[in-house]
Structures are given as C-alpha cells and as structure tokens.
Amino acid sequence: MIEEKQNIDIDLLNEKIKQKSSFISTISSEMSKVIVGQKNLIESLLIALLSDGHILLEGVPGLAKTLAISTLSKVIEADFSRLQFTPDLLPADLIGTLIYSQKSEEFIIKKGPIFTNFVLADEINRAPAKVQSALLEAMQERQVTIGDKTYLLDKPFLVMATQNPIEQEGTYPLPEAQLDRFMLKTIISYPKKDEEQLIIRQNLLKSFPVPKKIIDVETILKARETVKEVYMDAKIEKYIVDIVFATRFPKEFGLDKISHFIGFGASPRASINLAKASKSYAFIKSRGFVIPEDVRAICYDVMRHRIGLTYEAEAENITTEDIITEILNKVEVP
Prior knowledge:
Number of helices: 15
Number of strands: 11
CATH class of the largest domain: Alpha Beta
CATH superfamily of the largest domain: P-loop containing nucleotide triphosphate hydrolases
Structural class: alpha/beta
CATH architecture of the largest domain: 3-Layer(aba) Sandwich
Shape: globular
CATH topology of the largest domain: Rossmann fold
Radius of gyration: 21 Å
Helix content: 40-55%
Number of domains: 2
C-alpha cells in the first residue's frame, strides 16, 4: 500500500512558493527584451532548468534557439558553450581527451566544451551515433570519463539540443531510447506578424539589447530544492499514471480507435518527468500545489517524443500530438 501524504498547510506553502519564485518573472521579462515572442520556448527552458532536465527543440533555422539559451546564461551569469554538430565530429571534440605533454613527460587532461553550465548542441541529428551517445551519457550520468578518471559536471548542467525538421539528408536521427533521455521536446513555431515587425526593428537599432544579470547559479540550485516542496496530491499522481498507462494500454481507457496507431507507449521516465515538470510549472506560476491544468499544460512537451507510432498512423498522418489530445480528452480529470 502507498502511504497517504501527511497533512500540510497549503496556504503557508503557497506563500513560501510565491516568495521563492518571484525571480522567475524578472528572468522572463529580462529575456523578453532580447527574445521577441517565443514565450513557450522561454517557459520550457525554465521548466527544464528547475527540474534538472534537458530539452530538445525542433524548429526551422532562425527562430532564436541559440539566442535563447545564450541569453539565459547571461541572465543567470553561468558558463555557456555552443557545439555545432557535424558528421565529422568525434566524441573527444565534445568531452575532451588525453594529450601528451613533453614538458612533464606525461598525459594531461584537456577538458572539452561539455564542461560548462549550459550546452547548446546545435543540430544534434547531424552528428554520428558515437558523438550522440557521448553527449547523452553525460546528460544522464552528469559525469564524463576521460582515460581512467571520472569528472563530475558542473551544476546546474542543462543541454539544449536542436534538430532541423526540414533537412533530413545526411542526418543521423536520434533513436527512441536516446530521445527518452530528454525531459522535454518543444516545437518552435514562426513568430506572429507584429512580433516579426519588432524583430526587424530591434535588429536595425544601433545597439542590440543586452540582458542584465538577474541571479546567480546558487539561486537556481536553491530554487530546485524549493520546487521539490511543491505539493502534489495523490489524485494528481494517479492522473499522471493514468495518462502514461493510456499510451501503453489504450483499450483499457476506452481508446480503441487509436490503439492501432500506437506502436509502443511511454516509459516510466515519462511519469517521472511529467510529475517533475508539473511541479516546476506550478512553481513558475507562483503556486505551492499542482493542479490538473499544470499536468495538461506540460503534457505535450513531455510525451510527444515518447510515443511510438505504427506505419498505419504515419500513413494516415496521425501525429503523437493527436494521440495525446485523445488521451487527455478521455482520461478522467481529478
């Protein structure tokens, strides 16, 4: 039996979260000075950062993906490195290698660009499997092994990988098992007309807006601990489990019409990440408890890359978003 949670003072917790999360709106407004529109992108980055997860962005070039994470690193005053993934990239180019020093007559460690706080893995699907595996291992284990020594990566450590959906020639698509390592997969869309007009105006100015430092790394690490205190009722936990189980056993939830479109359902990582992301989303909204709307708001980003489609689904142009929508409409909301 799962033990019932102890009674807590929701009002007191709510007030505490409201105070502790006050810096979120400041970060968002500071980033908005540089990033026009793309509120979903900024929100997804903050959720991944607060949940100690990683994010995969999919969108055409020129939608401020690189600018977003570099701006975030400046606002938090953290280290940032950008890696352009290419077919000739080697794992050593990413994690580092041993170099022989003639002066000391021994091998010394040359650390790679992964030893930083924020890593932009640009066009991750252009790199071969060995490089992808080296990055994903670092993401999962938060450590890198060079030679016979293991080095822990800095905290916070956030990987934002991008992939271009329009150019698939000469790419190495990420296998489903590796995609599962990403907490979120966010689809980036084009800006609206008025937003694009403002983008033009900003880029024609004599000086481009420069973000100010708002907080330090230590504040983020403390915020992560506070996020864990956000209250999640047992009914919300059951709701998350039902959503994930509906991807595995759709017929049990009365979803017979989509069962033949699902090749495989979401893994337990989906349940864990949906719970973590829901808490972070509640924190961003300055709330001390999770409500069903939090789960539904973040569900697409957490689940879209964790559901396998059959050939029949692809033939009928059924997407994972369609599957998630059907599940959310069918699963009983607490």
